[in-house]
Design goal:
Blueprint lengths: L7 H4 L10 H98 L3 E2 L6 E2 L1
Keywords: Coiled coil
């Protein structure tokens, strides 16, 4: 982006009694061109950084959503675990009840065995189809 030397005086206002030498004009033109190139490069870098920041912002938002989903799953899992613990307590109570019933029934079976031994062998009643003592 070089400009001609003739354009520089219009960019730089000089009082009429100051004379700018030709080599100074070239130096000013060179510096101005470098400054413009630097500004263009800085603007390009800024746009690139803004694009990267936008992408990173989107990534952060996606990560936040993923984190919320994970937190929801954890909460749901904790609720499921609590529910399962309650069910397990209920099942343990049922098992305890069954153990008591079995123990009670074992006692009855033993009593029945003793009574059957006292009665003698079972006979088939032809009328009812049941075994009787």
């Amino acid at each position: 982006m070089m400009t001609s030397v003739s354009q520089v005086p219009s960019l730089v206002s000089t009082p009429p009694n100051i004379v700018i030498r030709e080599d100074h004009l070239r130096e000013l033109e060179f510096r101005r061109a470098n400054t413009v190139e630097s500004l263009v490069a800085i603007q390009g870098s800024r746009q690139m950084l803004e694009t990267k920041m936008d992408a990173m912002s989107m990534d952060i938002n996606h990560l936040r959503l993923d984190l919320r989903k994970v937190a929801d799953r954890v909460m749901s899992t904790e609720e499921d675990v609590a529910s399962l613990k309650q069910e397990m307590k209920g099942l343990q109570a049922v098992v305890s009840g069954l153990k008591c019933s079995v123990t009670h029934m074992d006692g009855r079976v033993e009593d029945a065995d003793v009574q059957n031994k006292q009665r003698g062998p079972l006979r088939n009643s032809s009328r009812t189809g049941f075994f009787t003592a």
